[in-house]
Amino acid sequence: MALSDARPVLRATFDAVADRYDPSDVDYFRPVGRRVVELAEIRAGDAVLDVGCGRGAALFPAAAAAGGEGRVVGIDLSEAMVAATAAEARALGLSGVEVLRMDGQDPDFPAGSFDAVIGSMSVHMLPDTGAAFARFRELLRPGGRLCVSAPTTVLTPRPLVFGLASIAKWVQEYEAGTRVYPQSSAFGGEERVLADLRTAGFRAAAVRDEVLHLTASSGRALVDWTWTHGMRLFWERVPADRRADVAADIDAEAETHRDPDTGLVTIPTMVSYVMAR
Questions:
Q1: How many domains would you assign to the chain?
Q2: Which SS3 state, helix, strand or coil, does residue 23 take?
Q3: Global pTM?
Q4: Dihedral of alpha carbons 146, 135, 131, 76, sign
Q5: Could you give the 3-state DSSP secondary structure of residue 135?
Q6: pLDDT (tens digit per residue) in 129-162
Q7: Is residue 89 part of a domain?
Q8: ∠ CA(180), CA(247), CA(25), 5° rounding?
């Protein structure tokens, strides 16, 4: 079933944050991207498509796994993201990496082009994930693998977003819940996504929910980080005269998670990984 199409808003948002997306003093997207590559079982020589590649959280680990004989193509709807990530790939000398502006809903490649299709924190934002899965299946070679990730919706015993009740509370207050920070399960929930994958032609599929420890140098760094990715959509809904109070609330809760041994704010949060072949 197609959901409301947020692509124009998302494209504008990610264009706006591309130059400061996911700074190094908060670690979340990078470990998720590495885990996607592990679960996709990417091997030397593989051809890989990364849907919604952003700044390369999964793209660059996929390139490392595929090696010099492999081919890794990242696609993203944001022109600014594509430009920044392509420039980084060139700077790293990754000749087997290509980054293109393309809609992940219906990637324009010949059937059977890839050994693996991956998407880290991206595919759940597409307007019709069932149709996207069917297209991804067409793009895979025999024995090909799919792995995508999304935030796990946590509603009980209390709602959490990025492991924090304060973010969930304010998201609800300003009615900013979307497929980016879902108040309902990504992909429609496990039963729905498994059915969609079967309909798309995948023979085996599974969903894994895993704990990821988001780390930040401080609560304030985490608040600043939320402006550098899709959560910017939330901040744009918060009235300017309320943002300082909202930020202080999130900062304060984040600081309760400071690890005395490492000195880092360390927040357990849930991530869902969807795998199929």
A1: 1
A2: coil
A3: 0.92
A4: positive
A5: helix
A6: 999 999 999 999 999 999 999 999 888 889 999 9
A7: yes
A8: 70
